[in-house]
Amino acid sequence: MLSRPVARAAVVLSCLVWGAASAVLPSFAAAADAYPVRPVTILVGTPAGGPVDVSARIAAEGLAKRWGQPVVIENKVGASEGIAASQVSRAPADGYTLYVSSTNPFTNNPFLFAKLGYDPAKGFSSIGGISEIPMAFVANPKAPFQSMASLVSYAKAHPGELSWASAGVGTMNHIAGEWAAADAGIKVVQVPYKGSGPALTAVVSGDTPYGVVSLVQALPFVKNGAVRMLAVTTGKRTSMAPEVSTVAESGVPGFDLAIRTVMTAPVGTPAAIIEKINADLNAVLQSPEVQAKFVGLGADVIVTSPADLTAMLDKGRSDIGRVITNAGIKPE
User: Which helix (H) or strand (E) holds 279?
Assistant: First the structure.
């Protein structure tokens, strides 16, 4: 049993510790309420003018208006967005350095590069999604199949005979094609092109009977009959072509892939600040004016919670890692 003086000292110490802790808790909330009190920097790992960069700038413009503070974009290009990821992961976790990227640094890079300058699973705090650019499986009108299901049936009857066009080795288009082929149980031959545009041209010309290309690039060719739409790659149907089935609906359950742009922060950023940024980002993305800008880019907005984004990245890392490993994909 403690003596009375010792017991009294323990009680006093306990009160002091609790008082200190309870004083800290409101300080985080107060900091979040006031945030931001100075300019915020968003690092982007792709060149200016690309889809990730433009998505970041649309989001930054909306956040700056809500916050009354400048939101500055800095492009740190290189290592498949890895240079920017490394810099953000080492930045102070105070909410003033954010990272807007594709999902590649978190889902693809761990399986394509022997060493990374950041931890893709534990080095960042998720904030929220921004946009997604759907891809599409398209076929030449003279191809001997009219749907994703009939493509699979034809390929099973003619193993190794079909070729298909991708936007290049290691691209999301490539991964989409390999994923669908593996899960559908077909053997087809990838023909890599230097970008989605040349891949689409190959399908239009008949050099390859089908390909995986950007949906927004494909739509004009679908309308004029130059290519046939087979399926979109997103888990749910896209607002840009709601009549088109998804790959998942066409016999490959669980298939969900797109060129997605997301926002994260250094790990350890206070939860209250993360929640505030997420709420403000989602408010920006739900604006009809902002949504119209993304439609002009061929993108849908994606509104998520931080937990939703973490789950998305974890699933993507598992799914894409499996495809890259099984297909033996290596960066060129």
Answer: helix 271-285
Query: What is the chain's percent helix, strand, coil content, to nearest 5?
Result: 45, 20, 35
The one-digit pLDDT tens for each residue of the chain (332 residues) are 444 444 444 444 444 444 544 544 455 566 678 999 999 999 999 999 999 999 999 999 999 999 999 999 999 999 999 999 999 999 999 999 999 999 999 999 999 999 999 999 999 999 999 999 999 999 999 999 999 999 999 999 999 999 999 999 999 999 999 999 999 999 999 999 999 999 999 999 999 999 999 999 999 999 999 999 999 999 999 999 999 999 999 999 999 999 999 999 999 999 999 999 999 999 999 999 999 999 999 999 999 999 999 999 999 999 999 999 999 998 76
Rounded to whole angstroms, the Cα distance separating 118 from 10 reads: 43
Q: Which domains does the chain have, with CATH numbers?
A: 37-132+259-327 (3.40.190.150), 134-250 (3.40.190.10)
Buried b (16+ CB within 10 A) or exposed e, 37-57: eeebbbbbbbeeeebbbbbbb
Q: Which two tokens stand for residue 61?
A: 């413009």
The Cα–Cα gap between 156 and 162 comes to 10
Query: Around Cβ 283, how many Cβ atoms within 10 Å?
Result: 14
How is residue 246 annotated by DSSP? B
C-alpha span between 138 and 281 (Å, rounded): 34
| Residue showing tokens 């699979």 | 152
